[in-house]
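name: query_chain
kind: protein
chains: 1
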Amino acid sequence: MKSVIVGTAGHIDHGKTALVKALTGIDADRLEEEKRRGITIDIGFAHLELPGSNGEVLRLGFVDVPGHERFVRNMLAGVGGIDLVLLVISADESIKPQTREHFDICRLLAVRRGITVLTKSDAVDAETLDVVRLEVEEFLRGSFLDPTHSPIVAVSSLTGAGLPELKQALVKVAAEVPAKDSNALARLPIDRVFTMKGFGTVVTGTLVAGTIRREDELEVFPDGKRVRVRGVQVHGEPAEQAFAGQRTALNLAGVAVEDLARGMMLAPPDTFRATERAHVSLSLLPSAKPLKDRARVHLHAYTSETVAEVALYGEKIIKPGQNAYTQLRMDARTLLLPGDRFIVRQFSPVVTIGGGVVLDAAPRTRGKKDVVLPLLRILDQGAAESVIGARIARNEHEGLTLVQLTAETGWRQARLDQILAGLAQHKQVLRLGERYVHPPAADQVKQSVLRTVEDFHKKNPLVPGISKEELREVVRSSPEIFGALVSLLVQERKLDVTGELVRLPGQGVVLKDEEAESKKIIEQAFSSAGLQVPALYNVLAGLKVDKARAQKIVTLLLRDKVLIKISDELVFHHSALQQLRGQLAAYKTKSPKIDVGKFKELTGVSRKYAIPLLEYLDRERVTRRVGDERVIL
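structure:
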Protein backbone atom coordinates (compact mmCIF):
# COMPACT_ATOMS: atom_id res chain seq x y z
CA MET A 1 0.00 0.00 0.00
CA LYS A 2 1.53 3.28 -1.12
CA SER A 3 1.06 6.30 1.15
CA VAL A 4 1.04 9.83 -0.25
CA ILE A 5 0.49 13.08 1.67
CA VAL A 6 -1.67 15.63 -0.11
CA GLY A 7 -1.72 19.24 1.08
CA THR A 8 -4.23 21.93 0.28
CA ALA A 9 -3.23 25.50 -0.51
CA GLY A 10 -5.22 28.57 -1.44
CA HIS A 11 -6.99 31.72 -0.35
CA ILE A 12 -9.49 31.86 2.51
CA ASP A 13 -13.01 30.71 1.68
CA HIS A 14 -12.00 29.14 -1.64
CA GLY A 15 -13.40 25.80 -0.50
CA LYS A 16 -10.34 23.82 0.64
CA THR A 17 -12.01 22.15 3.62
CA ALA A 18 -15.25 21.53 1.70
CA LEU A 19 -13.21 19.89 -1.07
CA VAL A 20 -11.43 17.57 1.38
CA LYS A 21 -14.78 16.63 2.94
CA ALA A 22 -16.30 15.97 -0.49
CA LEU A 23 -13.38 13.69 -1.37
CA THR A 24 -13.04 11.83 1.93
CA GLY A 25 -16.28 12.31 3.86
CA ILE A 26 -14.22 13.72 6.75
CA ASP A 27 -14.64 17.26 8.07
CA ALA A 28 -11.06 18.44 8.69
CA ASP A 29 -12.28 21.42 10.73
CA ARG A 30 -12.11 19.94 14.23
CA LEU A 31 -12.15 23.09 16.39
CA GLU A 32 -15.43 24.50 17.73
CA GLU A 33 -14.37 28.00 16.67
CA GLU A 34 -13.70 26.78 13.13
CA LYS A 35 -17.22 25.39 12.85
CA ARG A 36 -18.74 28.51 14.42
CA ARG A 37 -16.85 30.97 12.19
CA GLY A 38 -16.88 28.78 9.07
CA ILE A 39 -13.13 29.17 8.43
CA THR A 40 -10.14 26.93 8.96
CA ILE A 41 -7.90 28.23 11.74
CA ASP A 42 -5.53 25.33 12.32
CA ILE A 43 -4.36 22.45 10.17
CA GLY A 44 -6.78 19.55 9.84
CA PHE A 45 -6.45 16.00 8.59
CA ALA A 46 -8.39 13.44 6.59
CA HIS A 47 -7.62 10.30 4.59
CA LEU A 48 -8.85 8.42 1.57
CA GLU A 49 -8.02 5.10 -0.07
CA LEU A 50 -8.21 4.73 -3.84
CA PRO A 51 -7.38 1.84 -6.18
CA GLY A 52 -4.03 2.55 -7.83
CA SER A 53 -3.37 2.22 -11.51
CA ASN A 54 -1.26 -0.93 -11.02
CA GLY A 55 -3.74 -2.65 -8.72
CA GLU A 56 -2.19 -1.54 -5.41
CA VAL A 57 -4.16 0.41 -2.83
CA LEU A 58 -3.30 4.08 -2.75
CA ARG A 59 -3.63 5.67 0.70
CA LEU A 60 -3.94 9.45 0.56
CA GLY A 61 -3.47 11.51 3.70
CA PHE A 62 -4.85 15.03 3.38
CA VAL A 63 -3.44 18.00 5.29
CA ASP A 64 -5.95 20.83 5.13
CA VAL A 65 -4.45 24.24 5.86
CA PRO A 66 -5.98 27.62 6.72
CA GLY A 67 -6.14 30.23 3.97
CA HIS A 68 -6.49 33.38 6.05
CA GLU A 69 -3.37 35.56 6.06
CA ARG A 70 -3.34 35.59 9.87
CA PHE A 71 -3.02 31.80 9.93
CA VAL A 72 -0.26 31.34 7.34
CA ARG A 73 2.07 30.25 10.17
CA ASN A 74 -0.37 27.37 10.83
CA MET A 75 -0.45 26.63 7.11
CA LEU A 76 3.37 26.35 7.13
CA ALA A 77 3.24 23.85 9.98
CA GLY A 78 1.15 21.54 7.82
CA VAL A 79 2.66 21.90 4.39
CA GLY A 80 6.23 20.85 5.21
CA GLY A 81 5.93 17.13 4.63
CA ILE A 82 3.51 16.96 1.70
CA ASP A 83 4.16 14.99 -1.49
CA LEU A 84 1.75 16.86 -3.75
CA VAL A 85 -0.46 19.90 -3.45
CA LEU A 86 -4.03 20.71 -4.38
CA LEU A 87 -3.87 24.40 -5.28
CA VAL A 88 -7.45 25.45 -4.67
CA ILE A 89 -8.79 28.48 -6.56
CA SER A 90 -12.42 29.51 -6.37
CA ALA A 91 -14.02 29.91 -9.79
CA ASP A 92 -16.04 32.90 -8.59
CA GLU A 93 -12.99 34.84 -7.26
CA SER A 94 -9.99 33.55 -9.24
CA ILE A 95 -6.46 34.31 -7.98
CA LYS A 96 -6.26 36.17 -4.65
CA PRO A 97 -3.37 37.26 -2.31
CA GLN A 98 -3.14 34.02 -0.32
CA THR A 99 -3.33 32.05 -3.58
CA ARG A 100 -0.07 33.71 -4.53
CA GLU A 101 1.55 33.39 -1.12
CA HIS A 102 0.62 29.72 -0.71
CA PHE A 103 1.82 29.01 -4.24
CA ASP A 104 5.13 30.76 -3.52
CA ILE A 105 5.50 28.72 -0.34
CA CYS A 106 4.98 25.46 -2.23
CA ARG A 107 7.61 26.44 -4.80
CA LEU A 108 10.09 27.47 -2.10
CA LEU A 109 9.53 24.15 -0.32
CA ALA A 110 10.34 22.40 -3.62
CA VAL A 111 6.97 20.68 -3.92
CA ARG A 112 7.32 18.95 -7.31
CA ARG A 113 3.81 17.76 -8.07
CA GLY A 114 0.24 18.91 -7.75
CA ILE A 115 -3.17 19.50 -9.19
CA THR A 116 -4.90 22.84 -9.62
CA VAL A 117 -8.55 22.62 -8.52
CA LEU A 118 -11.09 25.21 -9.62
CA THR A 119 -13.73 24.96 -6.88
CA LYS A 120 -17.27 26.33 -6.77
CA SER A 121 -17.68 25.64 -10.48
CA ASP A 122 -21.44 25.55 -9.89
CA ALA A 123 -21.37 29.22 -8.85
CA VAL A 124 -20.32 30.51 -12.29
CA ASP A 125 -21.39 30.01 -15.88
CA ALA A 126 -19.30 28.14 -18.43
CA GLU A 127 -17.91 31.30 -20.00
CA THR A 128 -16.71 32.67 -16.67
CA LEU A 129 -15.15 29.31 -15.81
CA ASP A 130 -13.23 29.39 -19.09
CA VAL A 131 -11.94 32.89 -18.38
CA VAL A 132 -10.80 31.86 -14.89
CA ARG A 133 -9.11 28.80 -16.34
CA LEU A 134 -7.16 31.00 -18.79
CA GLU A 135 -6.10 33.34 -15.97
CA VAL A 136 -4.92 30.38 -13.89
CA GLU A 137 -3.04 28.82 -16.80
CA GLU A 138 -1.16 32.06 -17.32
CA PHE A 139 -0.43 32.35 -13.59
CA LEU A 140 0.98 28.80 -13.44
CA ARG A 141 2.97 28.87 -16.65
CA GLY A 142 6.63 27.86 -16.17
CA SER A 143 6.06 26.50 -12.66
CA PHE A 144 5.79 22.96 -11.29
CA LEU A 145 2.03 23.28 -11.90
CA ASP A 146 2.44 24.32 -15.52
CA PRO A 147 -0.77 23.25 -17.35
CA THR A 148 1.25 21.45 -20.05
CA HIS A 149 2.04 18.66 -17.58
CA SER A 150 -0.12 19.32 -14.51
CA PRO A 151 -3.93 18.95 -14.60
CA ILE A 152 -6.47 21.67 -13.87
CA VAL A 153 -9.76 20.18 -12.68
CA ALA A 154 -12.99 22.09 -12.13
CA VAL A 155 -15.19 20.72 -9.32
CA SER A 156 -18.20 21.50 -7.20
CA SER A 157 -18.05 20.19 -3.65
CA LEU A 158 -21.77 20.97 -3.39
CA THR A 159 -22.99 18.98 -6.43
CA GLY A 160 -20.11 16.52 -6.73
CA ALA A 161 -19.34 17.60 -10.29
CA GLY A 162 -15.71 16.96 -11.25
CA LEU A 163 -14.91 14.84 -8.20
CA PRO A 164 -14.49 11.56 -10.17
CA GLU A 165 -12.11 13.36 -12.56
CA LEU A 166 -10.19 14.80 -9.59
CA LYS A 167 -9.83 11.34 -8.03
CA GLN A 168 -8.49 10.00 -11.34
CA ALA A 169 -6.01 12.86 -11.49
CA LEU A 170 -4.97 12.16 -7.88
CA VAL A 171 -4.30 8.51 -8.71
CA LYS A 172 -2.22 9.47 -11.74
CA VAL A 173 -0.15 12.17 -10.02
CA ALA A 174 0.29 10.13 -6.82
CA ALA A 175 1.70 7.26 -8.87
CA GLU A 176 4.53 9.57 -9.93
CA VAL A 177 5.46 10.43 -6.34
CA PRO A 178 8.66 8.59 -5.38
CA ALA A 179 8.47 6.58 -2.19
CA LYS A 180 10.11 8.14 0.85
CA ASP A 181 13.01 6.28 2.43
CA SER A 182 11.64 4.03 5.16
CA ASN A 183 15.16 2.77 5.88
CA ALA A 184 16.43 6.25 6.74
CA LEU A 185 16.74 7.48 10.31
CA ALA A 186 13.26 8.35 11.55
CA ARG A 187 12.07 11.93 12.02
CA LEU A 188 8.55 12.94 12.99
CA PRO A 189 7.80 16.69 13.21
CA ILE A 190 5.05 17.14 15.80
CA ASP A 191 2.03 19.13 14.64
CA ARG A 192 -0.50 18.20 17.35
CA VAL A 193 -0.26 17.22 21.03
CA PHE A 194 -3.25 16.10 23.09
CA THR A 195 -4.46 13.68 25.72
CA MET A 196 -6.70 10.75 24.85
CA LYS A 197 -8.71 9.19 27.65
CA GLY A 198 -7.36 5.75 28.50
CA PHE A 199 -4.14 6.31 26.54
CA GLY A 200 -2.45 9.46 27.81
CA THR A 201 -0.15 11.63 25.73
CA VAL A 202 -0.63 11.47 21.96
CA VAL A 203 1.27 13.33 19.23
CA THR A 204 0.63 13.44 15.51
CA GLY A 205 2.70 14.38 12.50
CA THR A 206 3.75 13.41 9.00
CA LEU A 207 6.61 10.91 9.22
CA VAL A 208 9.14 12.53 6.88
CA ALA A 209 11.75 9.75 7.04
CA GLY A 210 12.34 6.27 8.41
CA THR A 211 10.12 3.89 10.35
CA ILE A 212 8.72 4.09 13.89
CA ARG A 213 7.58 0.94 15.69
CA ARG A 214 5.79 0.15 18.91
CA GLU A 215 8.17 0.10 21.90
CA ASP A 216 10.76 2.22 20.08
CA GLU A 217 12.64 4.69 22.25
CA LEU A 218 12.79 8.20 20.80
CA GLU A 219 14.35 11.52 21.70
CA VAL A 220 12.35 14.75 21.76
CA PHE A 221 14.18 17.62 20.04
CA PRO A 222 15.31 20.13 21.02
CA ASP A 223 14.72 19.33 24.71
CA GLY A 224 16.42 15.93 24.75
CA LYS A 225 13.71 14.09 26.72
CA ARG A 226 13.39 10.33 26.14
CA VAL A 227 10.02 8.76 25.38
CA ARG A 228 8.74 5.29 24.59
CA VAL A 229 6.20 4.54 21.87
CA ARG A 230 3.31 2.68 23.50
CA GLY A 231 1.13 2.64 20.42
CA VAL A 232 1.08 3.60 16.74
CA GLN A 233 -1.79 4.69 14.50
CA VAL A 234 -1.62 5.35 10.77
CA HIS A 235 -4.47 7.37 9.26
CA GLY A 236 -6.57 6.64 12.33
CA GLU A 237 -6.00 2.85 12.34
CA PRO A 238 -3.87 0.92 14.89
CA ALA A 239 -0.59 -0.34 13.42
CA GLU A 240 2.61 -2.04 14.54
CA GLN A 241 4.72 0.51 12.72
CA ALA A 242 4.54 3.68 10.66
CA PHE A 243 6.55 4.29 7.52
CA ALA A 244 7.93 7.45 5.94
CA GLY A 245 5.21 9.38 4.11
CA GLN A 246 2.37 8.38 6.44
CA ARG A 247 0.22 10.49 8.73
CA THR A 248 1.18 9.08 12.10
CA ALA A 249 -0.17 9.24 15.64
CA LEU A 250 1.98 8.01 18.52
CA ASN A 251 0.87 7.21 22.06
CA LEU A 252 3.91 8.14 24.17
CA ALA A 253 5.02 7.00 27.60
CA GLY A 254 7.42 8.93 29.81
CA VAL A 255 6.26 12.43 28.95
CA ALA A 256 3.38 14.74 29.85
CA VAL A 257 1.33 16.77 27.40
CA GLU A 258 2.67 20.03 28.81
CA ASP A 259 6.24 18.92 28.01
CA LEU A 260 5.50 18.69 24.27
CA ALA A 261 4.47 21.24 21.67
CA ARG A 262 4.08 21.76 17.95
CA GLY A 263 7.47 22.39 16.41
CA MET A 264 9.27 19.69 18.36
CA MET A 265 10.57 16.63 16.54
CA LEU A 266 10.95 12.96 17.43
CA ALA A 267 14.03 11.04 16.28
CA PRO A 268 16.23 8.12 17.41
CA PRO A 269 18.08 8.88 20.66
CA ASP A 270 21.78 9.87 20.70
CA THR A 271 21.83 10.35 16.93
CA PHE A 272 21.28 14.02 16.07
CA ARG A 273 22.02 17.39 17.65
CA ALA A 274 19.74 20.41 17.68
CA THR A 275 21.40 23.57 16.44
CA GLU A 276 21.15 27.34 16.71
CA ARG A 277 23.07 27.95 13.47
CA ALA A 278 22.81 26.61 9.96
CA HIS A 279 24.38 27.34 6.62
CA VAL A 280 21.72 27.53 3.91
CA SER A 281 21.04 28.39 0.32
CA LEU A 282 18.45 31.17 0.52
CA SER A 283 16.24 32.36 -2.36
CA LEU A 284 14.38 35.64 -2.16
CA LEU A 285 11.05 36.00 -3.95
CA PRO A 286 10.91 38.54 -6.81
CA SER A 287 8.10 40.27 -4.95
CA ALA A 288 10.10 40.63 -1.73
CA LYS A 289 11.97 43.69 -0.53
CA PRO A 290 15.79 43.55 -0.47
CA LEU A 291 17.10 41.59 2.52
CA LYS A 292 19.95 43.23 4.42
CA ASP A 293 22.80 41.55 6.28
CA ARG A 294 21.85 40.89 9.92
CA ALA A 295 18.14 41.22 9.13
CA ARG A 296 15.84 39.27 11.44
CA VAL A 297 13.22 36.99 9.92
CA HIS A 298 10.66 34.39 10.96
CA LEU A 299 12.03 30.95 10.09
CA HIS A 300 9.68 28.01 9.41
CA ALA A 301 10.97 24.46 8.92
CA TYR A 302 8.48 21.57 9.00
CA THR A 303 6.33 22.36 12.05
CA SER A 304 8.92 24.51 13.87
CA GLU A 305 8.96 28.29 13.96
CA THR A 306 11.60 30.62 15.38
CA VAL A 307 13.17 34.01 14.77
CA ALA A 308 16.55 34.00 13.02
CA GLU A 309 19.20 36.47 11.96
CA VAL A 310 20.44 36.29 8.37
CA ALA A 311 24.23 36.64 8.20
CA LEU A 312 25.48 37.22 4.64
CA TYR A 313 28.95 36.40 3.29
CA GLY A 314 30.67 39.40 1.76
CA GLU A 315 27.44 40.89 0.44
CA LYS A 316 25.49 43.52 2.31
CA ILE A 317 22.13 42.73 0.75
CA ILE A 318 20.18 40.06 -1.16
CA LYS A 319 18.14 41.57 -3.97
CA PRO A 320 14.63 40.35 -4.89
CA GLY A 321 14.77 37.17 -6.96
CA GLN A 322 18.38 36.46 -6.00
CA ASN A 323 19.91 33.40 -4.33
CA ALA A 324 22.72 33.52 -1.76
CA TYR A 325 24.62 31.31 0.68
CA THR A 326 23.98 32.58 4.19
CA GLN A 327 24.15 31.59 7.80
CA LEU A 328 20.94 31.56 9.85
CA ARG A 329 21.37 32.31 13.55
CA MET A 330 18.30 31.10 15.37
CA ASP A 331 16.84 32.29 18.66
CA ALA A 332 15.80 28.74 19.56
CA ARG A 333 17.57 25.43 19.04
CA THR A 334 16.04 23.38 16.22
CA LEU A 335 16.71 19.97 14.70
CA LEU A 336 17.69 20.56 11.08
CA LEU A 337 19.50 18.32 8.62
CA PRO A 338 21.03 18.95 5.18
CA GLY A 339 18.30 18.88 2.54
CA ASP A 340 15.58 20.23 4.82
CA ARG A 341 13.52 22.97 3.18
CA PHE A 342 12.51 26.14 5.01
CA ILE A 343 10.52 29.34 4.59
CA VAL A 344 11.48 32.82 5.79
CA ARG A 345 8.94 35.53 6.42
CA GLN A 346 9.63 39.20 6.91
CA PHE A 347 9.94 40.19 10.56
CA SER A 348 7.37 42.97 10.25
CA PRO A 349 4.98 43.12 8.56
CA VAL A 350 4.91 39.33 8.49
CA VAL A 351 4.78 38.21 4.86
CA THR A 352 6.55 35.38 3.04
CA ILE A 353 9.75 36.67 1.41
CA GLY A 354 11.77 33.57 0.57
CA GLY A 355 12.99 30.14 1.47
CA GLY A 356 15.59 27.58 0.64
CA VAL A 357 17.45 24.47 1.68
CA VAL A 358 19.71 23.62 4.62
CA LEU A 359 23.27 22.77 3.57
CA ASP A 360 25.00 22.38 6.93
CA ALA A 361 23.40 22.30 10.37
CA ALA A 362 26.76 21.89 12.14
CA PRO A 363 28.83 24.90 11.01
CA ARG A 364 32.07 25.47 12.89
CA THR A 365 31.90 29.28 12.77
CA ARG A 366 30.67 31.86 10.33
CA GLY A 367 34.23 31.85 8.96
CA LYS A 368 35.82 33.81 6.15
CA LYS A 369 34.08 34.15 2.82
CA ASP A 370 36.92 32.56 0.82
CA VAL A 371 36.90 29.51 3.11
CA VAL A 372 33.19 29.01 3.71
CA LEU A 373 31.76 29.62 0.24
CA PRO A 374 33.76 26.88 -1.57
CA LEU A 375 32.65 24.42 1.11
CA LEU A 376 29.00 25.46 0.76
CA ARG A 377 29.15 25.02 -3.02
CA ILE A 378 30.33 21.44 -2.50
CA LEU A 379 27.62 20.77 0.10
CA ASP A 380 25.04 22.27 -2.25
CA GLN A 381 26.05 20.72 -5.57
CA GLY A 382 28.65 18.02 -4.90
CA ALA A 383 28.26 14.25 -5.06
CA ALA A 384 27.98 12.30 -1.81
CA GLU A 385 31.69 11.42 -1.85
CA SER A 386 32.67 15.08 -2.26
CA VAL A 387 30.31 16.11 0.54
CA ILE A 388 31.76 13.60 3.00
CA GLY A 389 35.33 14.43 1.97
CA ALA A 390 34.67 18.15 2.45
CA ARG A 391 33.11 17.63 5.88
CA ILE A 392 36.13 15.61 7.01
CA ALA A 393 38.61 18.09 5.51
CA ARG A 394 37.05 21.11 7.25
CA ASN A 395 37.62 19.35 10.59
CA GLU A 396 41.33 19.27 9.81
CA HIS A 397 43.52 16.84 11.78
CA GLU A 398 40.80 15.92 14.29
CA GLY A 399 38.61 14.39 11.57
CA LEU A 400 35.17 12.91 12.24
CA THR A 401 33.80 9.65 13.56
CA LEU A 402 30.95 7.71 11.98
CA VAL A 403 28.68 8.87 14.78
CA GLN A 404 29.57 12.51 14.09
CA LEU A 405 29.08 12.06 10.34
CA THR A 406 25.64 10.56 10.96
CA ALA A 407 24.68 13.52 13.14
CA GLU A 408 25.89 16.00 10.50
CA THR A 409 24.35 14.34 7.43
CA GLY A 410 21.40 12.29 8.70
CA TRP A 411 22.71 9.33 6.68
CA ARG A 412 22.78 5.81 8.08
CA GLN A 413 26.16 4.30 8.94
CA ALA A 414 25.84 1.62 6.24
CA ARG A 415 25.75 4.31 3.55
CA LEU A 416 28.60 6.21 5.17
CA ASP A 417 30.69 3.02 5.46
CA GLN A 418 30.38 2.47 1.72
CA ILE A 419 31.35 6.06 0.87
CA LEU A 420 34.26 6.09 3.33
CA ALA A 421 35.61 2.79 2.00
CA GLY A 422 35.77 4.28 -1.48
CA LEU A 423 37.43 7.48 -0.23
CA ALA A 424 39.98 5.48 1.76
CA GLN A 425 40.74 3.29 -1.26
CA HIS A 426 41.60 6.40 -3.28
CA LYS A 427 43.54 7.82 -0.30
CA GLN A 428 41.18 10.77 0.04
CA VAL A 429 40.58 10.00 3.71
CA LEU A 430 42.76 8.31 6.31
CA ARG A 431 41.30 6.19 9.10
CA LEU A 432 42.95 6.73 12.47
CA GLY A 433 41.28 4.64 15.15
CA GLU A 434 37.59 5.55 15.09
CA ARG A 435 38.21 8.79 13.19
CA TYR A 436 38.45 9.64 9.51
CA VAL A 437 40.98 12.37 8.76
CA HIS A 438 41.94 14.42 5.69
CA PRO A 439 45.38 13.04 4.65
CA PRO A 440 47.06 16.48 4.13
CA ALA A 441 45.95 17.51 7.63
CA ALA A 442 47.33 14.27 9.08
CA ASP A 443 50.62 14.85 7.23
CA GLN A 444 50.88 18.32 8.76
CA VAL A 445 50.57 16.86 12.26
CA LYS A 446 53.16 14.18 11.47
CA GLN A 447 55.59 16.83 10.26
CA SER A 448 54.91 18.87 13.37
CA VAL A 449 55.66 15.82 15.53
CA LEU A 450 58.97 15.17 13.75
CA ARG A 451 60.03 18.84 13.94
CA THR A 452 59.19 18.99 17.64
CA VAL A 453 61.19 15.85 18.45
CA GLU A 454 64.13 17.09 16.36
CA ASP A 455 64.09 20.48 18.12
CA PHE A 456 63.93 18.73 21.49
CA HIS A 457 67.05 16.69 20.71
CA LYS A 458 68.94 19.83 19.68
CA LYS A 459 68.03 21.68 22.87
CA ASN A 460 68.42 18.66 25.20
CA PRO A 461 71.40 16.57 24.04
CA LEU A 462 71.68 14.78 27.38
CA VAL A 463 67.99 13.77 27.50
CA PRO A 464 67.15 10.55 25.62
CA GLY A 465 63.74 11.71 24.36
CA ILE A 466 60.64 13.85 24.84
CA SER A 467 57.70 12.50 26.82
CA LYS A 468 54.59 11.59 24.84
CA GLU A 469 52.38 13.97 26.80
CA GLU A 470 54.74 16.93 26.36
CA LEU A 471 54.94 16.17 22.64
CA ARG A 472 51.16 15.94 22.32
CA GLU A 473 50.67 19.28 24.05
CA VAL A 474 53.14 20.96 21.69
CA VAL A 475 51.41 19.65 18.52
CA ARG A 476 47.92 20.23 20.02
CA SER A 477 46.26 17.00 19.04
CA SER A 478 43.68 14.77 20.72
CA PRO A 479 45.04 11.61 22.41
CA GLU A 480 43.38 9.34 19.83
CA ILE A 481 44.76 11.12 16.75
CA PHE A 482 48.18 11.70 18.35
CA GLY A 483 48.58 8.05 19.35
CA ALA A 484 47.58 6.82 15.90
CA LEU A 485 49.92 9.20 14.08
CA VAL A 486 52.88 8.37 16.36
CA SER A 487 52.24 4.67 15.69
CA LEU A 488 52.28 5.41 11.94
CA LEU A 489 55.59 7.24 12.28
CA VAL A 490 57.04 4.29 14.20
CA GLN A 491 55.86 1.93 11.43
CA GLU A 492 57.48 4.23 8.89
CA ARG A 493 60.70 4.08 11.00
CA LYS A 494 60.73 7.82 11.47
CA LEU A 495 60.33 7.62 15.25
CA ASP A 496 61.35 5.31 18.10
CA VAL A 497 59.25 4.98 21.23
CA THR A 498 60.56 3.53 24.49
CA GLY A 499 57.98 3.55 27.24
CA GLU A 500 56.76 7.15 27.48
CA LEU A 501 59.75 8.62 25.65
CA VAL A 502 59.76 9.50 21.95
CA ARG A 503 62.96 10.06 19.97
CA LEU A 504 64.30 10.05 16.43
CA PRO A 505 65.81 6.73 15.26
CA GLY A 506 69.50 6.43 16.06
CA GLN A 507 69.35 9.48 18.28
CA GLY A 508 71.48 8.54 21.29
CA VAL A 509 72.93 10.65 24.04
CA VAL A 510 76.40 11.93 23.10
CA LEU A 511 78.52 12.95 26.07
CA LYS A 512 81.45 15.32 25.96
CA ASP A 513 84.69 14.31 27.72
CA GLU A 514 83.92 16.15 30.98
CA GLU A 515 80.33 14.80 30.91
CA ALA A 516 81.53 11.22 30.41
CA GLU A 517 84.00 11.67 33.26
CA SER A 518 81.30 13.07 35.52
CA LYS A 519 79.02 10.14 34.69
CA LYS A 520 81.79 7.73 35.70
CA ILE A 521 82.40 9.60 38.99
CA ILE A 522 78.71 9.51 39.92
CA GLU A 523 78.36 5.82 39.19
CA GLN A 524 81.57 5.00 41.10
CA ALA A 525 80.48 7.03 44.11
CA PHE A 526 77.29 5.04 44.52
CA SER A 527 78.60 1.59 43.52
CA SER A 528 81.41 1.74 46.09
CA ALA A 529 79.10 2.98 48.85
CA GLY A 530 76.90 -0.10 48.97
CA LEU A 531 73.90 0.77 51.11
CA GLN A 532 75.71 3.59 52.93
CA VAL A 533 75.10 5.96 50.05
CA PRO A 534 76.18 9.59 50.07
CA ALA A 535 73.80 12.49 49.54
CA LEU A 536 73.30 13.08 45.84
CA TYR A 537 73.87 16.84 46.05
CA ASN A 538 77.27 16.25 47.68
CA VAL A 539 78.34 14.00 44.80
CA LEU A 540 77.17 16.49 42.17
CA ALA A 541 78.87 19.40 43.92
CA GLY A 542 82.26 17.85 43.24
CA LEU A 543 81.83 17.53 39.47
CA LYS A 544 83.44 19.75 36.79
CA VAL A 545 80.16 20.19 34.86
CA ASP A 546 77.44 22.70 35.77
CA LYS A 547 74.44 21.75 37.87
CA ALA A 548 71.99 21.47 34.91
CA ARG A 549 74.22 19.05 32.99
CA ALA A 550 74.98 17.10 36.16
CA GLN A 551 71.25 16.61 36.77
CA LYS A 552 70.74 15.40 33.17
CA ILE A 553 73.55 12.85 33.67
CA VAL A 554 71.73 11.56 36.76
CA THR A 555 68.56 11.34 34.67
CA LEU A 556 70.44 9.17 32.18
CA LEU A 557 71.67 6.87 34.94
CA LEU A 558 68.16 6.60 36.38
CA ARG A 559 66.67 5.91 32.95
CA ASP A 560 69.19 3.13 32.30
CA LYS A 561 68.45 1.80 35.83
CA VAL A 562 72.12 2.08 36.82
CA LEU A 563 70.89 4.15 39.75
CA ILE A 564 67.60 3.52 41.54
CA LYS A 565 65.76 6.32 43.31
CA ILE A 566 63.81 4.94 46.29
CA SER A 567 62.77 8.24 47.89
CA ASP A 568 63.12 11.99 47.33
CA GLU A 569 66.53 11.97 49.04
CA LEU A 570 67.98 8.48 48.59
CA VAL A 571 69.55 7.03 45.43
CA PHE A 572 71.25 3.60 45.33
CA HIS A 573 73.34 1.74 42.83
CA HIS A 574 71.40 -1.13 41.28
CA SER A 575 74.11 -3.66 42.34
CA ALA A 576 73.67 -2.70 46.01
CA LEU A 577 69.94 -3.30 45.85
CA GLN A 578 70.45 -6.57 44.03
CA GLN A 579 72.86 -7.66 46.77
CA LEU A 580 70.26 -6.69 49.39
CA ARG A 581 67.70 -9.00 47.74
CA GLY A 582 70.22 -11.83 48.05
CA GLN A 583 70.78 -11.09 51.73
CA LEU A 584 67.02 -11.25 52.42
CA ALA A 585 66.69 -14.52 50.50
CA ALA A 586 69.43 -16.04 52.67
CA TYR A 587 67.84 -14.64 55.84
CA LYS A 588 64.51 -16.21 54.89
CA THR A 589 66.03 -19.69 55.34
CA LYS A 590 66.37 -18.85 59.03
CA SER A 591 63.19 -16.82 59.54
CA PRO A 592 60.31 -15.85 57.21
CA LYS A 593 59.90 -12.49 58.99
CA ILE A 594 62.15 -9.58 59.81
CA ASP A 595 61.61 -6.40 61.83
CA VAL A 596 63.36 -3.04 61.57
CA GLY A 597 65.94 -3.90 64.21
CA LYS A 598 66.95 -7.20 62.60
CA PHE A 599 67.04 -5.45 59.18
CA LYS A 600 69.47 -2.84 60.57
CA GLU A 601 71.69 -5.62 61.95
CA LEU A 602 71.57 -7.54 58.67
CA THR A 603 72.45 -4.55 56.46
CA GLY A 604 74.47 -2.37 58.83
CA VAL A 605 72.44 0.73 58.01
CA SER A 606 70.87 3.29 60.31
CA ARG A 607 67.12 3.85 60.67
CA LYS A 608 67.46 6.80 58.24
CA TYR A 609 68.22 4.25 55.48
CA ALA A 610 66.37 1.22 56.85
CA ILE A 611 62.80 2.60 56.70
CA PRO A 612 63.01 3.90 53.08
CA LEU A 613 64.69 0.65 52.01
CA LEU A 614 61.97 -1.49 53.60
CA GLU A 615 59.24 0.65 52.01
CA TYR A 616 60.98 0.22 48.65
CA LEU A 617 61.10 -3.55 49.16
CA ASP A 618 57.38 -3.51 49.99
CA ARG A 619 56.66 -1.68 46.70
CA GLU A 620 58.80 -4.19 44.82
CA ARG A 621 56.92 -7.06 46.52
CA VAL A 622 60.10 -8.46 48.02
CA THR A 623 58.55 -7.98 51.46
CA ARG A 624 55.05 -7.35 52.83
CA ARG A 625 54.43 -5.37 55.99
CA VAL A 626 52.41 -7.09 58.71
CA GLY A 627 52.23 -4.94 61.83
CA ASP A 628 55.77 -4.02 62.90
CA GLU A 629 57.33 -6.84 60.90
CA ARG A 630 57.90 -7.71 57.24
CA VAL A 631 57.11 -11.05 55.70
CA ILE A 632 59.85 -11.98 53.22
CA LEU A 633 58.08 -13.12 50.04
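note: The chain has a mean pLDDT of 88.
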